[in-house]
Amino acid sequence: MRHLISITDLTTNDINAIFQRTDQILHDGFQPTLAHTVIATLFFEPSTRTRLSFETGILRSGGRVISVTDPAATSTTKGETLEDTVRVISSYVDAIVLRYPEAGAASRAAIVSTVPVINAGDGTGEHPTQSLYDLYTIRQALGRTDHFHIVCLGNLKYYRATRSLVRLLARYPNVTMTFVSAPELAMKTDILDELTQQGINYQVTTNLTSVLPTADVVYQTRMQKEWLSDTEYQRLKDQYIITPSVAAQMKPGAIIMHALPRVNEISPTVDSLPQAYYFKQAALGMPVRAALLQYWLQT
Ligand code: CP
């Protein structure tokens, strides 16, 4: 039994197999490979895409779902711990997809679970399944998973999706990375130290304009009110807004990505431009997550 807690839990062979399966789903449609499977989606933090794409992928693959969408309706309100909740639910189902507001929660769940735990976002920790379909999106858009320049933009300190993505991209050849943010929202040193140790070429800057012309991917992030004080949020929220004039500085074929939800950081006037890839990215989350579960529960 394997858990998926960090993006580093996936080998490159796993990723290739999941992408091959996703290709098949997109080409031939879904097969009932999760028939007789019941999966619990336990969401102790709000979600639109992650929960519903997992659940749709399970249902389209012939599986069934039980779900927590309102933590207040569970016995955690009586004081039950995450560990006890997971210990019990893992005795009912074949896998648990868990979102929780604390970094490290998925690891804690995995220690007590008798079935695979898939991390669907743990606070400011990681969001490995997001990164999996982010990479699939890049592969679709650029036709490769190596030899490109990615600019990660905005809220890099708290944004778990870019933490996982950077860890994932570090294993592919010649991916250069630029981190653009206000100094107080810079990528944390644990990730930067990993990149340095692996000899990855990266730069940190506050200047978006200087790096736009060489970017193949601009990955925008949301200013997360949930992790910032009101003063910080008001000061930082509009610092890097992607508008059509920003998109116009990107080279032909370059794309704009975002895990979504967005608030104000990408103008809706960008949505119809060829660079706008974030809704295609969100759509790919469903088949990639279906392929992941099919693969994970059968190998
Ligand atoms: N990208 C993402 O995790 O979106 P949700 O919070 O809506 O699941």
Topology:
Layout: H1 12-28, E1 38-43, H2 49-60, E2 64-68, H3 82-89, E3 95-100, H4 105-112, E4 117-122, H5 128-142, E5 148-153, H6 160-169, E6 175-180, H7 189-197, E7 202-205, H8 208-211, E8 217-220, H9 230-236, H10 244-247, E9 255-258, H11 278-298
Parallel strand pairs: 1-2, 1-3, 3-4, 5-6, 5-8, 6-7, 8-9
Helix pairs in contact: 1-11, 2-11, 3-4, 5-6, 5-11
The protein binds phosphoric acid mono(formamide)ester.
Phosphoric acid mono(formamide)ester binds at residues 47-50, 121, 130, 259-261.
Summarize the structure.
With 299 residues, the protein is of the alpha/beta class. It contains eleven helices and nine strands. The protein has two domains: 7-126 and 285-298, 3-Layer(aba) Sandwich (Rossmann fold), CATH 3.40.50.1370; 128-282, Aspartate/ornithine carbamoyltransferase (Rossmann fold), CATH 3.40.50.1370.
Percent of residues in β-strands: 15-25%
Structural class: alpha/beta
> How is the biggest beta sheet arranged?
5 strands, parallel
How many E-type strands? Answer: 9
CA(first)-CA(last) distance: 9 Å
User: How many domains would you count in the coordinates?
Assistant: 2
CATH-derived topology of the largest domain? Rossmann fold
Strands of the widest sheet, in order across it, are 7-6-5-8-9
* CATH architecture name of the largest domain: 3-Layer(aba) Sandwich
Any overview of this molecule?
With 299 residues, this protein is an alpha/beta fold. It has 2 domains: 7-126 and 285-298, Aspartate/ornithine carbamoyltransferase (Rossmann fold); 128-282, 3-Layer(aba) Sandwich (Rossmann fold). Helix content is 38%, strand content 16%. The strands form 2 sheets. A 5-stranded parallel beta sheet has the order 7-6-5-8-9. Helix 1 (12-28) packs across helix 11. The chain starts with 11 loop residues before the first helix and ends with a helix. The model has no long low-confidence stretch (mean pLDDT 97). The protein binds phosphoric acid mono(formamide)ester. The site of phosphoric acid mono(formamide)ester has 9 residues, from helix 2.
